[in-house]
Design goal:
It contains 14 helices and 22 strands. It is α/β, with parallel strands linked by helices. It folds into 3 domains: 143 residues, Alpha-D-Glucose-1,6-Bisphosphate, Chain A, domain 3 (3-Layer(aba) Sandwich); 104 residues, Alpha-D-Glucose-1,6-Bisphosphate, Chain A, domain 3, CATH 3.40.120; 81 residues, Alpha-D-phosphohexomutase, C-terminal domain (TATA-Binding Protein), CATH 3.30.310. Helix 1 packs across helix 4, helix 5 crosses helix 6 and helix 8 runs parallel beside helix 9. It is globular and about 65 Å long. The mean pLDDT is 96. This is Phosphomannomutase.
């Protein structure tokens, strides 16, 4: 029986190919997905990794064997797969390992309308079926014989691009020079079509689809992976730069100086724009976004709702509250107009539109959204995650000026600073984020907490 404990994560399937999984297991996942979703038809897409086409086709065959009709949209970004799931009203599966190295691959699954499939919404059942079936070598047959489903192909890239451009109209904007670093990932496939016909002077970096990532990892969260983008923005005098991760569902922004724009500032900017369209709406933000996000939401007449980190929590809270937009510190941006799914491309179009609507540079535009100093995420390798977290809690729980909550990890808040300490779901890490009214306080609080964590 396959050991899926390291393969099936909280929100998706992800592991090394072929060491942890292969096309045989992919076919079982396809059959299990068909059974758990009880779908008559599904849609499947994949990224540019060498293993993606084979895994994707095996999954399709596994689902088709259960009588499910499969639409393959081929090479796509993850948000393009979500678009297909929403527009076609079908459950979907995306084959990607996002920003992980080349030897990894994975599956992000959703129900019809891009509704998330996570541990509590079907993934645990899918895992249990695959484990059971891997022991016997094949799925048990359905109670009644079924005719195999069909497998057909469909290109939805133009429809995806048109949907995004309808949500943010840039046709009349002032011309902008934009450097885009696709990191050899799926942004190189989607950006040319989305930007086609817009008043954008596009400067492409690493648009060649190459799942071995020959230039740098497709993980813009790591500062070393945006150095090329920063240099090209300065060198070309561009108005801004955009960096996408491997499956192009996350987008990072740098200003005209090549300086990174914090995702919290992008969240606040987009929230303000969405509230202008939907006055009084609800905005979701996770517990690690800046204080500036709920402040600006309130100033714009909206309601801010704080939730746990992770797309399944954000999407569930958006559905529960009817929220119009949600943002995370990791540069995931969620839109009601996009089936509550995350799309970095739509967030990027909002930034471009906001910039085009005024004459100043991006650094000036976003300065009002950058109100606090922040540490960024700091990872510490620890053997005893709960023990170290408890030690930090003990150090702060009796402070008169501190409020503690455990919505997601431990958050300690005072009038002048806050920090959050969370355990990684997949690695022996504790992740620390600190924000304060000035950089000196950030440094002091960071050092205090790390001294306990790393003791």
């Amino acid at each position: 029986m396959a050991d899926l404990s390291q393969l099936v994560k909280a929100y998706d399937v992800r592991g090394v190919v072929p060491d942890q999984w292969d096309e045989t297991l992919a076919a079982l996942f396809g059959a299990a997905f068909a059974q758990v979703t009880e779908a008559n038809a599904i849609v499947i897409g994949h990224d540019m990794r060498p293993s993606s086409p084979g895994l994707s086709r095996a999954f399709a065959k596994g689902a088709a064997a259960r009588g499910v009709d499969v639409t393959e949209i081929g090479l796509c970004s993850t948000d393009e797969l979500y678009f297909a799931s929403g527009a076609l009203d079908l459950p979907g599966a995306m084959f990607t390992a996002s920003h992980n190295p080349a030897q990894y691959n994975g599956i992000k699954m959703c129900r019809a309308g891009a509704a998330p499939v996570g541990q509590d919404t079907g993934l645990a059942e899918i895992r249990a079926l695959v484990e059971r079936w891997s022991e016997t070598g094949a799925p048990e047959g359905p109670e009644k014989p079924v005719a195999p489903g069909s497998i057909t192909q469909r290109d939805v890239l133009a429809d995806y691009a048109a949907h995004l451009r309808n949500l943010v109209n840039l046709t009349a904007s002032r011309p902008l020079k934009v450097v885009v670093d696709a990191g050899n990932g799926m942004g190189g496939h989607t950006v040319p079509t989305v930007f086609d016909g817009l008043p954008i002077d596009l400067v492409p970096l690493f648009f060649e689809l190459d799942g071995t990532f020959p230039n740098h990892e497709a993980n813009p969260l790591d500062p070393k992976n945006i150095v090329d983008l920063q240099q090209k923005v300065r060198e070309t005098g561009a108005d801004l730069g955009l960096a996408f991760d491997g499956d192009a569902d996350r987008c990072f922004v740098v200003d005209e100086r090549g300086e990174p724009i914090p995702p919290s500032a992008v969240t606040a900017l987009v929230a303000e724009r969405e509230l202008a369209k939907h006055p009084g709406g609800t905005i979701i933000h996770n517990c690690i976004t800046s204080w500036s996000v709920p402040e600006i939401v309130k100033e714009a007449g909206g309601t801010a709702v704080r939730t746990r980190v992770g797309h399944s929590f954000i999407k569930a809270e958006m559905a529960r509250t009817g929220a119009i937009f949600g943002g995370e510190h990791s540069a995931h941006y969620y839109f009601r107009d996009f089936w509550n799914a995350d799309t970095g491309m739509l967030a990027a179009l909002h930034v471009l539109a906001a910039l085009s609507e005024q004459d100043g540079p991006l650094s000036q535009l976003v300065s009002r959204y950058n109100r606090y100093a922040a540490s960024g995420e700091i990872n510490s390798i620890v053997d005893d995650q709960p023990g170290r977290a408890d030690a930090v809690k003990a150090a702060y729980e009796n402070r008169a000026d501190a409020q503690l909550d455990e919505l997601d990890g431990l958050t300690v808040t005072t009038p002048t600073w806050w920090f959050n300490l969370r355990a990684s779901n997949t690695e022996p890490l504790l992740r620390l984020n600190v924000e304060a009214r000035d950089a000196e306080t950030v440094d002091r609080v960071r050092d205090e907490v790390l001294a306990i964590v790393r003791a």
